[in-house]
UniProtKB/TrEMBL annotation:
This is Cysteine synthase A. InterPro entries: Cys_Synth/Cystath_Beta-Synth, TrpB-like_PALP, TrpB-like_PALP_sf. SUPFAM superfamilies: Tryptophan synthase beta subunit-like PLP-dependent enzymes. It holds the Pfam family PALP. It comes from Pyrodictium abyssi. Residues 27-303 form the Tryptophan synthase beta chain-like PALP domain. PANTHER family: CYSTATHIONINE BETA-SYNTHASE. It comes from the Archaea.
Length: 332
């Protein structure tokens, strides 16, 4: 039977109607495929989160955070939803909110690219530009309040963690019977901690490795290198709250993340974004240092697609040999 598409953009007249619409939108988020490949003596499985409607894993948390706000009573029909993001979360929050007849307001750094801003606008989002990066979260909270918006704040919102604990991780464990290592970049820490918690409950001994840019705060450094989608200058509250679930922190240089994109593309045909390239680079380091037994299954997440980063095309070339350095460790 054909699924009836929710009445996108229609303003619900009650909280119950909003929650019913959310249930229907939930049906088109998640249930993303996993592809597994034999790489030398190891199995690499990749969960393809770019299959989600707006192209990333953030659709899951946007739905959970908005639903949480509705259930707690702070957000009602026609209400306003705010978030600080110019990336994947911005697209997800704009899309979910607009679909529910809510007003999405996104706080975006003024130097964010016009491509990113246009995507947010296309998805129904209003943009408030942050011209001075030093203004911080209090400033954003005050502006959001002035506008009458509920600030979701993915960096501290526990529904971020919960979305991955209840959906991403459950799907993953149904799709991959034995997970020996889960390697994931940290932006807010929602994905890695949500999946890690479920892994700990069902398969106690999986190695959970957090991937972070070289010299980041999370790795005890000053916050030097950057990889898009991953945090460098802060250790987010969601990550801090659940950091006892993490076994290892693996630092990756931005150039290694690019090599990881090429390696993944040449070994599997999957075209993923830089955070996934960083995860592949980190997994390759773990394999190279003997942290994983031969025969292990390593899981990474393709949080988004390379298609979201047209500016990277000129820096990448399949067959350049850069990716081989990473892939060799899986075969030797
Ligand atoms: C492309 C990309 N990869 C990875 C992450 C990290 O996910 P999380 O915020 O769940 O740690 C993000 C988060 O912003 C992202 O946008």
């Amino acid at each position: 039977m054909l699924q009836r598409i929710p009445a996108y953009g229609r303003r619900a007249s009650s909280r119950e109607e909003l929650l019913a619409l959310i249930d229907r939108i939930r049906g088109i988020i998640g249930s993303t495929p996993v592809r597994c490949f034999q790489l030398g003596g190891y199995r690499l499985c990749v969960k393809l989160e770019y299959v989600n409607p707006t192209g990333s894993h953030k659709d899951r948390i946007a739905l959970y955070m908005v639903r949480g706000a509705i259930e707690s009573g702070v957000l009602g029909p026609g209400g306003c939803v705010a978030e600080v993001s110019s990336g994947n979360t911005a697209a997800s929050v704009a899309w979910i909110s607009w679909s529910l007849g809510l007003r999405p307001v996104l706080f975006v750094e003024s130097r964010a690219s016009e491509t990113k801003k246009s995507l947010i606008r296309m998805l129904g989002g209003e943009i408030v530009e942050i011209h001075d990066e030093g203004l911080g979260r209090d400033w954003v909270r005050e502006r959001a309040e002035e506008l009458g918006c509920v600030l979701l704040d993915q960096l501290s919102n526990e529904y971020n963690h919960l979305a991955h604990y209840e959906t991403t991780a459950v799907e993953l464990l149904n799709q991959v019977s034995q997970v020996d290592a889960f390697v994931m970049g940290v932006g807010t820490g929602g994905t890695i901690t949500g999946v890690a918690r479920r892994l700990r409950e069902s398969q106690g001994n999986a190695l959970v490795a957090a991937v972070t840019p070289r010299g980041s705060k999370l790795a005890g450094g000053p916050g030097a290198d950057t990889i898009e989608g991953l945090t460098s200058h802060t250790v987010p509250e969601v990550y801090q709250r659940h950091s006892s679930l993490i076994d290892r922190v693996v630092e990756v240089e931005s150039s290694e993340a690019l090599a990881g994109i090429e390696a993944l593309a040449s070994a599997t045909g999957i075209l993923a974004g830089p955070s996934t390239g960083a995860a592949l680079a980190a997994a390759s380091k773990l394999v190279a240092e003997g942290a994983l037994d031969t025969g292990s299954t390593v899981v990474i997440v393709a949080a988004d697609s390379l298609a979201r980063y047209p500016q990277l095309s000129s820096q990448l070339r399949l067959g350049s040999g850069r990716g081989d350095v990473l892939l060799n460790s899986w075969w030797s």
